[in-house]
Design brief:
The complex is a heterodimer of chains A (1038) and B (424). With 1038 residues, chain A is an alpha+beta fold. In chain A, 47% of the residues lie in helices and 11% in strands. Chain A is built from 43 helices and 21 strands. A 9-stranded mixed β-sheet of chain A has the order 2-1-3-4-11-10-9-6-7, covered by helices on one side. In chain B, a hairpin with a 2-residue loop joins strand 11 (310-315) and strand 12 (318-323). In chain B, 30% of the residues lie in helices and 18% in strands. The chains are: A alpha+beta (1038), B alpha/beta (424). At the A-B interface, helix 9, helix 11, helix 13, helix 15 and helix 17 of A face helix 5, strand 8, strand 9, strand 10 and helix 9 of B.
């Protein structure tokens, strides 16, 4: 029996599985031509001049062969590189995807090779590898754009040269990422002007060979920007938060490397800064541009990286120079039309300095003066002027006040300018403004605190127009000076506005009380006047609140008046009362309606200092709701001295007792007292105290709980077990496990099991738990062992798995099934790996069925698995799925996965007709592994085929392998029967006989081939051949 | 601390013999806005025995009438006679607030209409359940807080995640120190927003029964489009602040509440960055955004539309990710660790139940207006930073004033369209 190692199982079933579902294409693809407008954009974007003059005419091989994913941006890249070369004279370009370019003779024509989004290049022919290495050793350059790091799967040396390996792109082509310029002064980075930037492109995660010790990093993701955070995607494997984008290096054996991962999106090749970066990088690799390529980590002092600033996308090219163009576009804007120009101009207003804003203001005012602008355009100009406007904008805005519609925006803009000239313009504009606008002008002046408007507003407050009068009333309050309030107080306002006047006075008085201490007496007088019972109760409450906050003399009597008048909102003020005022209130509490008293008590709870006497007195109240409220408040705010009273109340019946018990659970500072009482307690009080200390999580009470768990009284035992389970820490684990052996009833068993589960999950050290549980298993009766097995299985560690394997080895059939059931319910990767192996190594059909079902359930359940990982799990299960029910289930689940893996495999799962003979090529089979990456070059990967014999008979099985100079060992399994084979070194002509296979007609058969041994792979195996033997024996069951 | 075990027992005082309150003791509720969110509240509340819905106000008479019929039908089925009339409907919420029989109001209207009804309801002495985000601007929020404090009414803001058990569990772990020292707080909010519309948009007629002028209310004039009004108003700065303000009252509010900064404002918004739509004929709020809110006590909350939705809190004792229905701990022990009952704990109950309990008990609801104001202020400040091109914006949380940011100052408030007045 062997188990899968923990890490192996994790990677098998975790998130990391394989690059599935990619579009694969062989080389030789014809790309559609690049559209003319894109070509034009590239021409415009390319620089006129190269950073270095070429030492001699340079010829660049742009290689774009794809043996994996095909990037649609490749033709754009080719054209852009051609344009860069033509426009600057830095190099000429030959583009090719033909491996035939990699001969010494061909390469000699070139000064450099640029891998443009090549994918999956294998360089299988050793001669091509040598040609490229020699080319570099002769001092030439290689370059990579975008997918150039996604090549050479079987050629580590080339991956090392490129400087890293693609490991997924957690940042998609639709995302906009912040890019940090690591080395701002590097000649290759001059295009970025010493600033980080934002760009919309796919960004790779680079791993393997990449290291700042080996290369000079030019650009990387600016991880200080939360937008770049992909930690939640589960795709991040780097632990150092370093995601390089571009680098250079000099190779020890000669040759230079430049790489930049930007270039997934077509638009990248139309972006001036990026084209300049490419050009400089290429010139470095060609040897024309001299750049220090000392690895980043070895620099001293370290360059100060330039992080990205405000988000802006390079491609958008919105610059202040473009203002006039955008404004021309904007001039015809109306509602419902494209807001592109508005977005661009808004972008400019945000991202320019004061000089830029001044320029924008001038241009906007000029536009506003022109006839024919739509309302929508004027509205938008007013909005921009809010941000960029100065004194210059005041007159043009004021001129709009006579128009009732656009005037709204003009008032808004004048208000927000917050300039004295704007206030003056509003004040002067009031009389001539469109009548509709007057309330809004009045309101604005009020909020601007324009004291000069007070006389005008005092008249308006009594005006005919309700809207204007209301605005004036509110404005006088908002101005909030003794003068404005005096004027408001005198104003004869319409009856409908009396309440508004009251609130405005209150507002003004509150401002005075808060901001101008010298006028507090005035404010208090206003508050006093507002406490008149003729005012609406909320206003009276607000006025009394003003008095209480101002600590005015008349505050408490005014408050008590409110209470006497049973004003319900008065309760809200109880927490503002002084101790003396509270004592005056207490007498009134007892006469209140219980529902009202409850509200007062709850607010008094918040008074400082806590008025404990009130609550102690109310504890004996007649009304249970009042009593319960007091108990609850004491429970939260009381202290140890309240313990006896609450304990005695808890002995009563009904809701009062429940409330008292709940109060004991919350009362601060009583843990020591509770323990003392618990030691001496008996009967119901002991039960209550056990529950209380458990609820309070008073860990020091654990010994008392444990003692109770061993009591003779059944109720005490049960309460003790429950309390012990809640209070246990990891040091108490053994004691908790010991409870299991002593249980005397089903309830106790349930409680003890719960205690074990809680204690086990609370323990941090999994190995300590395993030791304790293994020890406990030796002394615990079988009927209560199940929870211990669960505890073990839930550890999800190699040590716990080893312990379970030991148990499996020592148990009888029924005991093994118990363990398999527990593993099935556990649902962690370790348990799943064990179930998988148990399904293969099962001793009985029942074991197999249970283990297989448990494993498949895990795959279906575990939420962290993506469908590709699930598919891999199902494919690994299939060859061991024996009963039709199992195979059907696997196929059914695979059908639902709908990813590259599953779609491909489902086709191959269709059995192939086996007539006289059939060749089963490795490459046509279904690869699988118990975990990790699986392909024919990885040890542990097996392969299987499905066949359907057309005739019953005995079939000869032979194995073939490609010549690599040595024999290899495999094993072939059919219908549970395994045959080891060794295939000789070269079997092209003389295959190795595997054996003979009797097969029934029409049955589906899975033929499984696995490499034997930890290092063997399927890499050299070619095919199995089945041939029906001429003399057919009688069919027999496999 | 709003937590209370007393709340468990209190409602009894309003219960009649048979367990449901006598009609005269029910809380008479008026509903202002019964569309998307408000409609959901009404549908849930007709089954609440402590509440009697007596009035509905909606600028869309069709919606209002439909919900009135729904309420009356639901109540009729419970009447001995099988019929019920008695739900008032209006297009003008002021008529509803003028009714003395209404004890409390539910407000679920577009954000630009949050301040006025809430302030007027408070001044009329009505208890309030109002939807988040609290306000359209910080000055509005200040006036709203004042109105509630002054008039002494109970006010619950609809950040209902505070009543969600997964969020309360995290609150309890953090506030009782079970996550250890807090190292990092991250909040992921949705980005994007806005249905697909394209320029040019054809003119549209205001539907019959829809009082569009009232819908606009204090907002600037703009022509009617369906794509402007129901639900989609939230992507337009005149009425809302985008996904950021829509969600600030949930995950950010909870993160601030869990880490103990919900009653204070930040001292700075840092690292502010946003991407605005470039070619949309209506919608103009940020589609992607990120910033950090730094508090005087050292707490820093990172907010981003690029993070996984929800809250991640890293402490010295472990990490937790919480979202609606999602509670993931870095260690199983955090899943089971018991919270001491004398610590900061909650009685799990729904957001509405908490509100109704507080109306009865006089206690402060779990999402008090003061804290809702602090939460949404952070979104307003971040939007101010985005809209003025600042990566950093300093804020005096005590005086509630911007520091050294005259341009942001100019976008700080919004003037109301005549004749509406913010009764400061």
């Amino acid at each position: 029996m062997k188990i899968l190692s923990h890490t192996f199982a994790l990677s098998a079933l975790g998130a990391v599985l394989l690059p599935a579902g990619l579009v694969r294409a062989e080389p030789g693809i014809q790309f559609p031509p690049v559209p003319a407008d894109a070509l034009q954009k590239m021409k415009d974007a390319a620089p006129d001049k190269a950073p270095a003059r070429p030492i001699k005419p340079r010829k660049l091989l742009v290689f774009y062969r794809t043996q994996g994913y095909v990037h649609q941006s490749i033709p754009y890249g080719i054209e852009a590189l051609k344009i860069l070369g033509q426009k600057t004279g830095a190099f000429t370009v030959v583009a090719s995807d033909d491996m035939a370019m990699f001969t010494p003779q061909k390469l000699a024509e070139f000064d450099g090779v640029l891998f443009l989004s090549t994918t999956g290049l294998t360089f299988e022919d050793p001669a091509t590898r040598k040609a490229l290495l020699d080319f570099l050793a002769s001092g030439k350059g290689i370059m990579g754009i975008h997918a150039a790091t996604d090549n050479f799967p079987s050629w580590p040396e080339a991956r090392e040269i490129m400087g890293g390996k693609f490991h997924g792109h957690p940042w998609g082509g639709g995302d906009t990422e912040a890019v940090k310029v690591d080395d701002p002064k590097n000649p290759i980075n001059l295009a970025f002007g010493g600033k980080g930037f934002w760009i919309k492109d796919e960004i790779y995660q680079i791993d393997e060979a990449y290291s700042r010790d080996k290369q000079r990093v030019l650009l990387s993701l600016d991880m200080s920007k939360p937008q770049n955070d992909r930690s939640a995607t589960g795709q991040i494997v780097r632990t150092d938060n370093d995601f390089p984008i571009a680098w250079i290096k000099k190779l020890p054996g000669g040759g230079r490397v430049y790489y930049c991962s930007l270039g997934h999106n077509n638009e990248i090749f139309e972006t001036p800064e990026i084209l300049r970066h490419y050009l400089a990088g290429i010139q470095f690799a060609l040897g024309d541009l001299k750049v220090d390529a000392t690895p980043s980590a070895k620099l001293s002092p370290q360059p100060v990286a330039a992080t990205a600033g405000e988000i802006s996308v390079l491609q958008e090219k919105i610059r202040i120079e473009s203002l006039d163009g955008w404004l021309a576009k904007f001039a015809t804007y109306d509602f419902g039309q494209s807001r592109e120009a508005i977005s661009a101009i808004s972008f400019l207003t945000r991202n320019t300095d004061s000089e830029g804003r001044a320029k924008i203001e001038t241009a906007l005012l000029a536009l506003l003066a022109k006839p024919g602008l739509s309302y929508a355009a004027k509205d938008q100009i007013c909005r921009w002027l809010v941000l960029v406007g100065t004194d210059k904008s005041v007159a043009p805005l004021a001129a709009l006040l006579t128009d009732e519609k656009i005037g709204t925006m003009a008032v808004y803009a004048l208000f927000e300018l917050r300039l004295p000239s704007a206030v003056k313009a509003l004040r002067q504009g009031l009389s001539s403004a469109a009548p509709f606008l007057k309330p809004s002008i009045v309101g604005s002046l009020g909020r601007l605190g324009d004291t000069a408007s007070v006389p005008v507003f005092a008249n308006l407050a009594a005006a005919q127009s309700v809207d204007e009068a209301r605005a004036a009333i509110i404005a006088l309050g908002a101005i909030g000076t003794p003068d404005s309030l005096t004027a408001l107080g005198k104003a004869k306002v319409a009856p409908a506005l009396q309440t508004a006047k009251g609130w405005a006075l209150l507002d003004g008085a509150s401002r005075i009380a808060r901001d101008t201490p010298k006028d507090t007496d005035f404010a208090v007088k206003v508050f006093q006047s507002l406490t008149a019972p003729t005012n609406p109760p909320p206003l009276q409450v607000a006025a009394v609140r003003g008095l209480l906050l101002a600590k005015a003399d008349g505050a408490v009597p005014a408050y008590l008046n409110l209470v006497s008048a049973s004003t319900p909102q008065a309760a809200s003020l109880a927490s503002l009362l002084s101790p003396k005022a509270i004592s005056q209130l207490t007498g009134k509490l007892e006469k209140m309606e219980p529902a009202t008293a409850v509200k007062f008590l709850n607010r008094l709870a918040l008074a400082a200092p806590f008025p404990k006497a009130v609550f102690a007195r109310v504890l004996a109240a007649q009304d249970p709701a009042v009593q319960i409220t007091a108990i609850g408040v004491l429970g939260r705010h009381g202290d140890a001295s309240d313990l006896p009273a609450l304990l005695s109340l808890s002995g009563k019946d009904g809701d009062v007792a429940k409330a008292a018990a709940a109060a004991l659970e919350t009362l601060p500072g009583i843990d020591a007292d509770l323990r003392t009482r618990l030691k001496a307690a008996s009967g119901p009080e002991r039960l209550l105290l056990l529950e209380t200390v458990a609820s309070r999580v008073d860990r020091d009470s654990f010994p008392l709980a444990l003692a109770a768990a061993g009591d003779t009284d059944t109720a005490v035992r049960l309460a003790g077990i429950k309390a012990a389970g809640r209070l246990a820490t990891s040091k108490d684990l053994t004691a908790i496990l010991g409870l299991l052996s002593a249980v005397k009833s089903p309830q106790e068993k349930t409680a003890a099991e719960k205690a074990v589960v809680t204690a086990v999950r609370a323990a941090r050290d999994a190995d300590q738990v395993t030791d304790a549980v293994v020890a406990a298993l030796k002394t615990t009766p079988p009927e209560v062992q199940r929870v211990l097995l669960v505890a073990l299985a839930s550890q999800d560690t190699p040590k716990a798995a080893a312990a379970l394997n030991d148990l499996l080895a020592s148990r009888d059939a029924e005991g093994r099934l118990d363990i398999i059931r527990v593993l099935s319910g556990t649902r962690n990767p370790t348990a799943a790996a064990m179930l998988y192996q148990l399904a293969i190594d099962s001793r009985t059909p029942t074991e197999h069925a249970l283990a297989m079902r448990g494993y498949l359930d895990y795959l279906g359940y575990f939420p962290d698995l993506n469908n590709c990982a699930r598919s891999a799990g199902y494919l690994a299960a299939f060859p061991w799925a024996l009963a039709p029910k199992e195979t059907d289930l696997v196929v059914n689940r695979l059908t639902k996965m709908d990813c590259g893996e599953s779609r491909d495999a489902l086709k191959k799962l269709e059995p192939r007709a086996l007539d006289a003979d059939l060749e089963l090529r490795v490459d046509d089979g279904i690869f699988f592994a118990a975990g990790g990456e699986y392909n024919k070059r990885t040890p542990g990967t097996g392969v299987y085929w499905r066949v359907k014999p057309q005739k019953a008979g005995t079939y000869k099985v032979e194995g073939f392998q490609n010549n690599d100079g040595s024999p290899h060992s495999y094993r072939v399994t059919v219908a549970g029967k395994t045959t080891p084979i060794t295939v000789a070194k070269d079997t092209h002509d003389a295959p190795t006989a595997v054996g003979e296979l009797p097969l029934e007609e029409g049955s589906d058969v899975t033929i499984l081939l696995q490499p034997e041994g930890p290092t063997e792979t399927l890499d050299r195996f070619q095919k199995l051949k089945l041939t029906r033997t001429p003399t057919a024996p009688a069919p027999q069951k496999p | 601390m709003a937590a209370s075990s007393a709340g468990l027992f209190l409602p009894n005082i309003l219960r009649a013999q048979n367990g449901t309150p006598a009609p005269s003791k029910r809380i008479n509720l008026g509903c202002i806005g019964v569309g998307n969110m408000g409609g959901t509240h009404v549908r849930n509340l007709v089954g609440e025995s402590r509440v009697q819905i007596v009035g509905i106000a909606d600028v869309d008479l069709n919606t209002g009438t439909k919900m009135k019929a729904f309420v009356e039908e639901a109540y009729a089925s419970r009447m001995p006679a099988g019929t019920y009339k008695g739900c008032f409907v209006t297009q003008d919420f002021r008529e509803l607030l003028a009714r003395p029989d209404i004890d409390a109001v539910m407000i679920a209207v577009p954000d630009h209409w949050h301040a006025l009804p809430l302030i007027m309801a408070a001044q009329a002495g009505k208890h309030i359940y109002a939807e988040k985000p609290l306000s359209l601007t910080i000055p509005e929020g200040q006036a709203m807080v004042r109105a509630v404090e002054q008039s002494g009414v109970i006010c619950q803001i609809g950040s209902q995640q505070r009543s969600g058990q997964e969020f309360q569990r995290v609150y309890e772990l953090v506030q009782n120190g079970l996550l250890g020292e807090i190292k990092r707080v991250r909040v992921g909010l949705p980005g994007g927003g806005g249905g697909s519309i394209q320029a040019p948009m054809a003119e549209e007629k205001v539907p019959d029964g829809f009082n569009y002028d009232m819908w606009l209310g204090p907002a600037p004039y703009a022509p009617y489009y369906h794509a402007r009004c129901p639900y989609e108003w939230r992507w337009i700065f005149d009425y809302s602040g985008g996904q950021l303000t829509d969600w600030i009252g949930h995950h950010f509010d909870c993160a601030a509440w869990m880490t103990g900064v919900s009653a204070m404002g930040p001292v700075a918004i840092e690292g502010a960055a946003a991407v605005f739509p470039t070619d949309n004929p209506l919608y103009n709020t940020a589609q992607q955004f990120a910033f950090q809110a730094r508090y005087a006590n050292g707490v820093k909350i990172e907010v981003s539309s690029a993070l996984r939705n929800g809250i991640v809190i890293d402490g010295s004792e472990g990490s937790v990710h919480v979202d609606r229905g999602v509670l993931e701990f870095s260690s199983p022990s955090l899943q089971v660790v018991p919270v001491p009952s004398q610590g900061k704990t909650f009685v799990r109950r729904s957001h509405w139940t908490n509100f109704l309990d507080c109306v009865v008990s006089g206690e402060t609801p779990i999402c008090p207006i003061q804290e809702a104001h602090r939460s949404v202020s952070v979104a307003h400040l971040a939007n101010l930073a985005f809209r003025t091109g600042r990566s950093r914006l300093d804020w005096d949380p005590v005086a509630q004033r911007l520091i050294n940011a005259p341009d942001a100052e100019r976008l700080f408030s919004r003037d109301y369209r005549s004749p509406w007045q913010l009764p400061v």
